[in-house]
Specification:
238 residues; alpha+beta; Arc Repressor Mutant, subunit A
Length: 238
């Protein structure tokens, strides 16, 4: 990401632009006023580069103001993408690369407390793994052992098929949209086609012997997504 700060001040002549971020360098209008030591922009450069970014300056000349722009890696965006496809705790620790700053900001006790808090949030309500196997009809899904069976016979699934089935059964009773499944199973953060979901579901349904026209376990919601019934939900006719 890029952040720019612009002013309408004294400006900078083209020949002085390359030196702006050097220590003790002072732009036009600074000389002789006794203010500043010419370190501000050098410090900014050090901070930005310590975070993996870059900084630059632009000006149309003296008296015409200047624009300063710095870029930073979009780590926040990366974390959002990761959290869309996996429940993992995240802690940002930044000290501009200076050990003494990190030591003051995060004592071992405080850091340990923050890690424990992040782990508690991860395992809070709604994030716990299923404590009991999913059993509906002849289908049994054992989360702890990562086993799927139909009428006692094990069903071999690919990693993607298992992740797709897991997402549906963990949210049993809810309709999961195509985009939700694309994000959580395939890590797709931009809108995509549900064709890939249909292809894998077709293969997944064949393995426990399910008929897509008369489903028992996985149900389609046209133009929306898919759902699995809760284990205790009644079937039609009961």
């Amino acid at each position: 990401m890029a952040i720019s700060v612009a002013d309408h001040g004294v400006g900078v002549s083209p020949e002085r632009l390359p030196y702006l971020f050097r220590r003790f360098f002072r732009a036009e209008g600074d000389q002789g006023d006794g203010v500043g030591a010419g370190l501000g922009l050098a410090i900014c450069k050090g901070i930005v580069e310590a975070h993996g970014g870059r900084i630059r300056a632009e000006s149309d000349g003296p008296g015409r103001g200047a624009t300063f722009t710095f870029t930073l890696p979009a780590a926040i965006e990366l974390m959002q993408d990761i959290l869309r496809i996996a429940d993992v705790p995240v802690i940002f620790l930044s000290g501009y690369g200076q050990d003494q700053v990190i030591a003051r900001a995060f004592s071992p006790t405080e850091l340990a407390a923050r890690v424990q808090a992040a782990l508690r949030r991860r395992t809070g309500p709604g994030r716990l793994a299923p404590s009991e196997p999913y059993v509906r009809g002849e289908l049994t899904i054992d989360y702890a052992q990562r086993l799927v069976s139909v009428a006692g016979e094990p069903v071999r699934l690919t990693a993607v098929e298992y992740d797709l089935l897991r997402e549906l059964w963990v949210h049993a009773g809810r309709v999961l949209t195509h985009q939700h499944l694309l994000q959580r199973v395939w890590g797709q953060t931009k809108p995509g086609t549900p064709r890939v979901i249909r292809t894998h579901l077709m293969r997944l349904r064949r393995k426990p012997g399910e008929d897509g026209d008369n489903p028992r376990y996985i149900f389609a919601e046209p133009r929306v997504g898919y759902r699995m019934e809760r284990p205790d939900a009644r079937t039609p006719g009961e």
